[in-house]
Amino acid sequence: MDFTYDEDLVAVRDLARQIFTDRATTDRVREVEASATHIDEELWQQLASAGLLGLALPESYGGAGLEPAALCVVLEEQGRTVAPVPLWSAGVSSLAVASFGSHGQRDALLAGAADGSMRLTLALEEFDGAAPASPRCAAVRTGEGWSLTGTKAVVPSPTGASHVLVSATSVEGPAMFLIPADGDGIVWEQTKTTTHDLAGHLTLTGAVAEQLGDGETLAAVLRVAAAALAAVQVGVADGALRLAATYLSTREQFGRPLATFQSAQHQLADCWIDIDAMRVTLWQALASLDEPEAARAALVAKWWCDQAGLDVVHRAMHLHGGIGVDVDYPVHRNFLWGKQIASTLGGSAAALADLGAVLAREEVAS
């Protein structure tokens, strides 16, 4: 299968790379991390002005009408610079509304999502060990609407979000629901994550909600979320590798650059191989989103994102020696992002267990 970018994706990549390289400098990231929201709103608006927030949204709402792959191209460039903007959560949320929302939901949310004036976020994880595909947050039908009760953990970047997509389970099974971020029965508790994102624990007590799509929506959202996180992780790992290569090329020992030592070269080569495999499995997952093997491909990409991504940022830190543990040194941010992504929506062990279950079901079905 040919995963070469077409002309549209090359243009998207080049534009995103230019914006993130120019705007998400180390000094700027430090400045944003010390701000009240930990979100670079200026960068967010620049991405919106460049049309990068609505790439996968319909043209009728101000988007570009491209596939989810376009969003993932931008996410990889974000990961390379660890730029502090809530791109993956807002992008997956708005894409879910575009794909599964009612006409009213799309009309209310998508134009604002495309031009950056409105943000959405995702509440897919819980504290009690529930698998993302089987949430314990309870949904109860109330007339024509729904009521949600439960707690969602570590909702990414709720600051400035107007609505939240929440996974919950009713008597009909798991599903996705849409709630306003500041409605009745909603309580937020701010928490700081490994990436310095100001996330939120969300407690729902009879919160009024609208269902998004049908009972298959949650599984589809989880597949797209897995691909989006894998895309960010590819960028994070690639950025860490480049930082390590640059450091080893300029740092000398015994009168020679560290990059000339075979042990360092082998570790860099291992990182390159892992990143290449991560990228291949990511694009396989993106190519399979609407195919029967979508669940299997998404889990394979997620396992590589979690396992190999974590291995790469660990090696990159190791290759920096003592300076790598400096929490303000650039590679340390890649390390923290890699750690966070590797545990989001379950770690590598959970992805491997879910993949085994999918393969077992496919074997039985055949």
Keywords:
single chain, 366 residues, alpha+beta, Butyryl-Coa Dehydrogenase, subunit A, domain 1, Butyryl-CoA Dehydrogenase, subunit A, domain 2, Butyryl-CoA Dehydrogenase, subunit A, domain 3, 3 domains, 7-stranded mixed beta sheet, two-stranded antiparallel sheet, 11 helices, 18% strand, globular
At the fold tier of CATH, the topology name of the largest domain is: Butyryl-CoA Dehydrogenase, subunit A, domain 3
User: Please, what is the CATH homologous superfamily of the largest domain?
Assistant: Butyryl-CoA Dehydrogenase, subunit A, domain 3
Poorly predicted ranges: none
Strand content: 15-25%
- End-to-end separation in angstroms reads 24 Å
> Outline, from the CA principal axes?
globular
Number of helices: 11
What's the short version?
By secondary structure, the protein is α+β, with helices and mostly antiparallel strands.
What can you tell me about this protein's structure?
The structure is a single chain. Helix 7 (217-250) runs antiparallel to helix 10, helix 9 runs antiparallel to helix 10 (330-343) and helix 9 (294-319) runs antiparallel to helix 11. The mean pLDDT is 94. The chain folds into 3 domains: 7-117, Acyl-CoA dehydrogenase/oxidase, N-terminal domain (Butyryl-Coa Dehydrogenase, subunit A, domain 1, Orthogonal Bundle); 121-214, Beta Barrel (Butyryl-CoA Dehydrogenase, subunit A, domain 2), CATH 2.40.110; 218-365, Butyryl-CoA Dehydrogenase, subunit A, domain 3, CATH 1.20.140. The strands form 2 sheets. Strands 1, 2, 3, 4, 5, 6 and 7 form a 7-stranded mixed β-sheet that branches. The protein is globular, with a radius of gyration of 20 Å. The chain is built from 11 helices and 9 strands. The chain is an alpha+beta fold and 366 residues long. Strand 2 (138-142) and strand 3 (145-155) form a beta hairpin.
